[in-house]
Hints:
Helices cover 37% and strands 19% of the residues. With 382 residues, the chain is α+β, with helices and mostly antiparallel strands.
Amino acid sequence: MMECRLADVAKVDSGAGFPLQYQGTQDAVFPFLKVSDMNLAGNEREIQRWNNSVSDEVRGKLRAKAFPAGSLIFPKIGAAIGTNKKRQLTQPSCADNNVMAVIPKPELLEPDFLYFLFLAKNISDFASDSNPPSIRKSEVENWQVQVPTLSEQRRIVDILSRAEGIVRLRREAERKAAELVPGIFLDMFGDPATNPRGWPVESLGKHVGIPSVVRTPDLAAEADMLCIGADSIESMSGKLISMPTVRDVLPKSGKYWFDAGDALYSKIRPYLAKATLVQTGGYCSADMYPLRCGITLRPTFLLSLLLSKAFTEYATAESVRASMPKLNRVALFKYQFPLPPVRLQEIFSEHAEAMQAIQFQQSTATDKAKATFDALLAQVFS
C-alpha cells in the first residue's frame, strides 16, 4: 500500500472556455461537456450522452484538452459542488471551465479504482469558503490517498462493482414498481386529457376543499406533529405517508393544518407537480395545498390525477402565466377532469394500495443494498 499525494498517481486539470458560438453541435468528434451534462439520464456514472461537441479543429482553436476515456470529472465552481457529482468519461472528451478532470496514470492507478476513491470523498472538502465556492487544482493534487498495487486495485474494484451492480438492479426494480400505479390509472380511466371513457367532466374545485385559515400552531404541541415543508415533498411524491417521521423546520406562521387522508400538492417551483397522501394529521408549509376530497372523490384517485401527465402539463402552463411562478388556487380549482364512478375509484384504490406495498418492499430492499455498498466503500477507503 502506497501513501501519496493524488498528484503522484494522477494528473489534475481544468476544462477550457467554451464560447456560445461553438455550442450546439452534437455529432462532432469530441464531446464538450458541461456540468449540466452530468444530470442527463444515463449519465449517472459514465458519460454516455452530451449536448455539445466540437471538431478537432475547433478544439485546437479553444485550446481545450481532450481528457482520455477513464478520466473522472466533477464540478469545480458554485453550488454544483454541493451536488457531489462524479462521472467517468467513456471516450476522449473536452470540458468547460466549470469542470475539473482527474486523469489516472495507467501504470499506477486503475480508472475504476479512481472512481470509487472519489465516490467515497465529498468534493466539498476541497472547496474554498469564498462566495461562490470554488475548487483549486492544488487542493485536489495535495489530497493524501492510499493506493494499493494494481492487482489489489482490480480485486477491490471487482468487489465494489458487484455491490454497486446490486444497488443498480434494486433501483431499476424500484423504478418499475413506481410505474405500476400510473399504469393502472391509465388502464382503468384513460388519459384525463382525452377522456376516452366519456366520463362526465367536472372542475376540481367542486370536489376538493382547501383549509381556509392558515393557523399558527402551538410549538409545544407541534413537536408531536408531522411537519412537512416543500423541500420534503420531492422524496415523498406519489407515496402514502403512514408514519410521522418527517419534521421540517417550518416558519412560525404560514402553515396549513392537514388531516389523515388529505393530499398534499406543492404549488411552487422547483417542486411543482409533486404530491403525496398523508395518513396522519399535521402541518405543512404554505407552499403546498392540503386537498380534502368530497364524497364523490377518493384520495388515491386524486393523487394519481395530480401526478398525471395531463395535470402536470396544465399546472406548469398555469404557473408560467402567474405573476409569481406558482399554481394559484383559482387555476387549481378550475381544472377540468373526467370524473369516474365512485365504485370504480374504490377498486382503483384497492389495486393502488397493493402496488404501493410492492413499491415499499422494493424501496426497503434498495435502502439495504445501498447501506451495504456504502459500508463496503467506507471499509475500503476509511
